[in-house]
Amino acid sequence: MSVTFSWDLPESERIASLWAERGPTEIGGPAVGTVGGVFEPGEYLREGYTITSRGCPEKCWFCAAWKRDGATARELPIRDGWNVLDDNLLACSEAHIRSVFAMLARQTRRVEFTGGLHSARLKPWHVDLLSGLKPRPAIWLAYDEAADLEPFRIACKMLLDAGWTAKSHRLRCYVLCGYPSDTQAAAECRLRTVISAGATPMAMVYRGKDGVEAEGWHAWARQWIRPACIHPANAAGDRRE
Ligand code: SF4
Description:
By secondary structure, the protein is an alpha/beta fold. Helix content is about 30%, strand content about 10%. It is globular and about 55 Å long.
């Protein structure tokens, strides 16, 4: 079994003990610090997901990816998929990134970058590659702390200038909330800043090493997850894009 989040380990252990009656069963995955290897489509993740690189040089204090998979982007063999989960695709070499986009151009489904694209690394040639994908892909950026704001705004402007629109809800932004120095007023300010920059935010509540969210954040964050709650006047988004 591959387990992504450490807070799912108790339930995973329960399930593993049931499977153990049928055959050898082992728990691995990010939750137990397994270093990721070559990605096999359909193995542990649903069809359509792909991971073409692992590791990240940004070394964000709240993130386990670089601690587990390394502080450089390790390029892997490129396997087909339409939902790219790489830790930091834009930290890869130009040759790798162009090969990934060649693979994405073959896909019959709308491409999504739910692994996130790091705003500070977004260059005009990346935007050209993104714009070349039809239909227009769903892009996820991040605005977690004050230092992210300027690169995030620049990335939004580049993408809006290239044709992404706020009402399509296809320009999304993860916003980490509820970390030790955070307040709900400050988090709401970040979420509203994302909207004013032309993207649709999604609140991600921080969990410490123990996997526990600070009290009061879980219920508060619910209003900041689904686009239909964030933009009630345009709940469905613009399907023409
Ligand atoms: S940029 Fe993303 S993947 Fe990289 S360290 Fe920060 S949160 Fe983790």
